Amino acid sequence: MKKVQKRSLSVMLLVIVALLGMGFYIVRYVVHGAQWAAAPFNRTIFDGGMLNVGTVVDRNGVTLADVVDGRRVFADNADVRRATLHAVGDREGRVGTGALTVFASELTGFNLITGSYHRGGDPGRRIELTIDARISAEAMRALGGRRGVVMVANYETGEILAMVSGPTFDPSNPPDTFEDGVFVNRGIQSAFVPGSVFKVITAAAAIEQVPNVFDRAWYCNGGFDVSGLRVTCPGNHGSLGIIRGMQVSCNVVFGELALEMGGNTMLQYTERLGIAGRTAVSGMQTASGNFDAAPRNSADLAWSGIGQFTNTVCPASLLRLMGAIANDGNAIDLHYMQRTGPVSLLPPRTERILSRSTAQQLSEVIEIQNRQNFPGLQIYAKTGTAQVGGGHDPHAWFAGYITNPGHPLAFVVVVENGGGGAAVAAPIANQVLQAAIGR
């Protein structure tokens, strides 16, 4: 009798283990089934590692990727193909941020009962990106073959209209050898020394942490000394306040503000504003920005408030912040896929990172007063010339937003080792924004 009971107990335990295993598998299937169906080992939708189903179009219906006779093809226009490479992808899936990789499950379609929608010649799904092919092509031409990034987004919706990264290549006619870093989307997957664009973060902190900051005055005679070390300024600006200090990008103003607030306060603001650490673009984690809280009363702390020291910033994170300033302090998650077939995606997440008052005051600080180089643009922005050392030219930055009616657009431009932000990055932004508003 005892032997029968033991055998029954063993059978019952085996049944319980089997049920638990089946339950675990079902949960995994429900959660990850779409990703499994879109994995490269699924030969019904991949051929030699190439996704051979699904159509990708831009926001205006321009075809960016399609399948013809079982082979992946791209946009008709070569400039569009090169400009949208890092948003669309390549045949081999080497561009990690390309829609053909990131949104593969949406392109193939998936049902928990029947599995992949793709069956016997079915062309797969059509997805619509927020990318504008025309603006992207203009951004690529403006970048002019240089290494860097140009991004433009609607700060009211979070839709990315342009996400151009250089170097690039034509996915229809790939080269025999590729430039170093060509598969990296510099807007999402890279972080750079920011230089003076970081002064926007220092100003945001100062508006909230330094009493009567708009009534304060600083004196610039080309720099100041901190603990026996010289923090230099390229100008000799005399007496000036925070608004004038931003206009002329005075290192004295923002270096001394960082010293006054302290490294921990500065670190808290970089984290709150999404500059230190990672943010997300269409669910993908961006490259991590960095801010080290240097010791109080140190030259390193002053340099960090200016945008040097160990500071790094991901362009997409700065784009999100600029959009938040324009949007009364509300940061909207950036994305570049808006529709799968007839279904629109849910609205992106919105997070308040600045008070309305702080955002409005910060807008006053970064408003471009001399707009002769930006005809017709109601522009708020900051340049950056980021020193990188090693005998290399500085990175050129320009980031901000425009408030032209019907065109709520934030932007960021980075040219690696390009030189001065005002001389190099700002003209690129102007060219792209003029195209965006239809001029």
Regions with little confidence, pLDDT below 50 for 5+ residues: 29-45, 111-123
Q: Give the neighbour order of strands across the main sheet.
A: 5-4-3-8-18-19
Shape: globular
The termini sit apart by 92 Å
Helical content class: 25-40%
- Mean pLDDT equals 89
- Computed over alpha carbons, the radius of gyration is 25 Å
- The counted number of beta strands is 23
User: Which structural class should the secondary elements be placed in?
Assistant: alpha+beta
Largest sheet: 6 strands, mixed
What does this structure look like?
This protein has helices at 2-37, 78-83, 85-88, 99-102, 104-108, 133-143, 186-189, 199-209, 242-247, 251-261, 263-272, 299-306, 315-326, 356-366, 421-436, and strands at residues 46-47, 50-51, 55-57, 63-68, 71-74, 110-111, 115-116, 126-129, 148-154, 160-166, 218-220, 223-226, 229-232, 238-240, 280-281, 284-285, 330-332, 337-340, 343-344, 350-352, 379-386, 395-402, 409-415. By secondary structure, it is α+β, with helices and mostly antiparallel strands. A six-stranded mixed sheet has the order 5-4-3-8-18-19, with no helix packed on it. Helix 8 (199-209) packs across helix 10, helix 8 (199-209) crosses helix 14 and helix 10 (251-261) packs across helix 12. It is globular, with a radius of gyration of 25 Å.
